[in-house]
Design brief:
The chain has 456 residues and is an alpha+beta fold. The protein folds into two domains: 250 residues, Orthogonal Bundle (2-methylcitrate dehydratase PrpD); 124 residues, 2-methylcitrate dehydratase PrpD (60s Ribosomal Protein L30, Chain: A), CATH 3.30.1330. It contains 20 helices and seven strands. The strands form two sheets. Strands 3, 4, 5, 6 and 7 form a five-stranded mixed β-sheet that branches. Strands 1-2 form a two-stranded antiparallel sheet. The relative contact order is 0.15.
């Protein structure tokens, strides 16, 4: 990326971008409706993630160390109720969602925006009590369109493969600027601050050593929130290269015309997206042929390079399980499902899963590797003890973008993730409120349903 381009005045795409973020972009109704489904899905993931130790750590830490100062805005922590500063609330929720790898993403970005954007929306909304549901949806769309274009610019102009936190905070700053009525000048400085201080963390280092840092989003979200707040105080930032520099211009040419929000996928499983095609292939073979686990002598997974780099041993932590390839395929073949329970420590001692894991081998298929990142594909071959060989054929990861999850499928996933934690009545109440957001009702009414901690 160009590093020394001098821009005394706003350059590149900034003028049109500022009008899009701060003005009244003509967002098509289907795009707003899609944003509502993404929010519902993110809420389900956040609820299920309350079961993770990392979520408790993040919430406790935010209350103790990211508290709001006197006179500063604060926000309630979702599924908790305690208060923290806006960046602190963003940190807690983004960390919680990010550490249950079941949220939305856009394939060309090699990552995820919603896990940062919804925490930013929830935090800023606490200081905007009159925000309508429709306005909240529009802000979410603005965040998606911003974050994913920043991702395109970053991946095209730097060599390292960075986590989503390196770019999704820019979308958080855009959401804050929109909701708080910032000027173009404040928006410009906020973008520059968010980009400059974003965690340029290397994704493959985390893949090799899974931790609670996950996809960098836990620090990407508060960086974007904080950038807007400090820009409001007069703190100046350098121009955001991912928006204003000449070599990033291509990423913004379709802003307001080509809606990237509509091109996302929603993960059916709380596992790195790179493992989804093998999971789908294994589940398909199991369902089609009615195979019992004890009939399987061997499992061969042919996939792309990044997928093959995922862990293939017995997981040692929930983070390790979510960055696994062989483990979720074993779960698919033995249990016929890959849900939150399968990535929690209580499953790691399952003798049947461990036995199946030992029968799995992985290889990189050059033809499949060439399809990445446009497609996430794989083949699974089962050798049975009676000598039969069953092949899945080339299988693409489900959940989108082609085909997209239907509304009913998204709702069913939300219920599966939220229901066991929140109970049927509360799960249904939240679902109805979110799906009716596209109107003049206050977004605060939705948020009120998300504050209380799950009952033990």
């Amino acid at each position: 990326m160009t590093t020394h381009e001098t821009l005394p005045e706003p350059g590149g795409a900034f003028g049109a971008f500022a009008e899009f973020v701060l003005g009244d972009p003509a967002i098509p109704e289907p795009v707003l409706q899609a944003a509502g489904l993404y929010i519902l899905d993110l809420i389900g993931v956040a609820a299920s993630a309350t079961r993770l130790e990392v979520g408790r750590i993040a919430r406790d830490h935010a209350v103790r160390h990211w508290a709001a100062g006197e006179g500063a805005p604060s926000a309630r922590l979702l599924f908790d109720g305690r208060r923290a500063s806006l960046p602190g609330a963003g940190f807690a929720l983004a960390t919680q969602i990010d550490n249950l790898d079941a949220h939305d993403g856009w394939q060309p970005s090699l990552g995820h925006a919603g896990a940062a954007l919804f925490p930013a929306l929830a935090a800023f909304a606490e200081d905007a009590p009159d925000l309508t549901g429709r306005e909240a949806l529009a802000a979410m769309v603005v965040g998606y369109e911003t974050a994913y274009r920043a991702a395109l610019a970053l991946h095209a102009t730097v060599e390292d493969y960075h986590t989503s936190g390196a770019w999704n905070g820019i979308g958080c700053a855009a959401i804050g600027a929109r909701l708080r009525g910032a000027s173009p000048e404040i928006l410009r400085h906020a973008l520059g601050i968010a980009e400059y201080h974003a965690p340029r963390s290397q994704m493959m280092r985390e893949i090799a050593n899974p931790s609670m840092m996950h996809d960098g989003t836990g620090f990407g979200a508060p960086t974007g929130i904080y950038a807007l707040l400090i820009a409001e105080d007069g703190f100046l930032g350098a121009p955001a290269a991912l928006v204003e520099f000449a070599d990033a211009a291509f990423a913004w040419e379709s802003l307001g015309a080509d809606w990237l929000t509509m091109q996302q996928y929603i993960k059916p499983y709380p596992i790195c997206r790179w493992a989804h095609a093998p999971i789908d292939a294994a589940l398909g073979l199991r369902a089609t042929h009615g195979i019992a686990p004890q009939e399987i002598a061997g499992v061969e997974i042919a996939t792309f390079g990044y997928s093959a780099a995922l862990n293939c041993d017995v997981p040692t932590s929930t983070s390790n399980a979510q960055y696994s390839l062989a483990w979720p395929v074993a779960c698919a073949l033995v249990r016929g499902r890959v849900g939150t329970e399968e990535v929690l420590e209580g499953s790691f001692g399952d003798a049947g899963l461990r036995a199946m894991l030992g029968r799995i081998s992985v290889s990189v298929d050059p033809e499949i590797d060439a399809l990445f990142p446009a497609r996430r594909a794989a083949r699974v071959t089962l050798t049975l003890r009676d000598g039969r060989v069953l092949e899945s054929g080339l299988t693409d990861a489900s959940g989108g973008p082609d085909p997209q999850m239907t509304r009913d499928e998204v709702v069913a996933k939300y219920r599966a993730f939220a229901g066991p934690v929140l109970g049927e009545a509360r799960t249904t109440e939240i679902e109805q409120a979110v799906l009716e957001m596209n109107g003049d009702g206050r977004f605060a009414e939705v948020m009120a349903l998300l504050v209380d901690a799950p009952k033990a």
